[in-house]
């Protein structure tokens, strides 16, 4: 077998591979010898079929396998000897298209090699970690928000008009064409105006009603309404208002705490404090991660495989286009041409991706089965009732597994780098941390 280099320009590589007819013949014979003991053929005992007959019967089929194995073997041997890794699957094509049995096989292989990644002194990386404490004011603010979500309602002064957000307690009887219909009546029904609990146009007509007032509400059921016999029909609901109540926040006390699963108010405050600090810590990590990637981007420089940059730029352009055109759900639109900005961002992502992969490999960073299982379970929650099918889909889909594994691997590599870097804590306010996070989103 002969392998001849035809291109070595930057990261681009090209080779001609020649597999001789004799090599192919030898490989076919090897396969026949290996299979002979198990072959049965009419007129011969098992394992006693002559080689010449075996070759006539199976040689043509085995020739294709031998050819593929020889080419794959030559490629693998080349990568093992050269130490190079292709950025994408190498392009391989047979150049003597008029090949016939007994001829040598000529193959052309081309690819872009992954670049050599320079060493980075991770201990020289300087980072700042924003630290925010969950102070009493933040805990009290969170408590107030919880109290609002657990709001109660109390009766307004007699004669007060119902406002949007108020709760009315009323009886109603619905009729279509003068006839009552099933499910169209209720007594002492509590309805928060503006909650959109009823069909469109219903609640708006009850804004301004008073206790002990009777009012007819005229509406039209939507064309796509679930009950076919009501869809598109005009209806009149005779409503008798019994009470008008205004919303009031729940009192901040032990009773409120028990509503949220805590033993008492102090225990609830402790839970809130822990939750807030976990949120602050997560936001702080996101800010520090961006700063780390910025620092690494400055520290390293190496050639990038054009094919990877091009693919990443197209992906970025495509994603941003869909974000700007959310009404387009499919992908059968015209190709989105990447801009210089997209290409610049793609170069950064590819460079940092290759660097993190190299650092992770050298540090023997691995994603455990338990971490993958947890990631799959988290993703499966987005498909309630179909968790099992999603789990099975991921198990059978290598690409989906890689999509779930990649961010876990990246985060673990980031953690590894942070452990080696010089990290200085800096106490800041919650507002300062929020501004830092917003700055990330604007970039």
UniProtKB/TrEMBL annotation:
The protein's name: Trigger factor
Family statement drawn from the similarity comment of this UniProt entry: Belongs to the FKBP-type PPIase family. Tig subfamily.
Enzyme type, top EC level: isomerase
Superkingdom to which the source organism belongs: Bacteria
GO molecular function: peptidyl-prolyl cis-trans isomerase activity
Function: Involved in protein export. Acts as a chaperone by maintaining the newly synthesized protein in an open conformation. Functions as a peptidyl-prolyl cis-trans isomerase.
Gene symbol of the encoding locus: tig
One of the record's GO cellular component terms: cytoplasm
GO biological process, one term: protein transport
Principal cellular location given in the protein's record: cytoplasm
UniProt domain PPIase FKBP-type: residue ranges: 165-228
UniProt comment concerning the protein's domains: Consists of 3 domains; the N-terminus binds the ribosome, the middle domain has PPIase activity, while the C-terminus has intrinsic chaperone activity on its own.
Keywords: Cell cycle, Cell division, Chaperone, Cytoplasm, Isomerase, Rotamase
Subcellular location: Cytoplasm
Annotated InterPro entries: PPIase_dom_sf, PPIase_FKBP_dom, Trig_fac, Trigger_fac_C, Trigger_fac_C_sf, Trigger_fac_ribosome-bd_bac, Trigger_fac_ribosome-bd_sf, Trigger_fact/SurA_dom_sf
Pfam families: FKBP_C, Trigger_C, Trigger_N
EC number: 5.2.1.8
Keyword Cytoplasm: yes
Catalyzed reactions: [protein]-peptidylproline (omega=180) = [protein]-peptidylproline (omega=0)
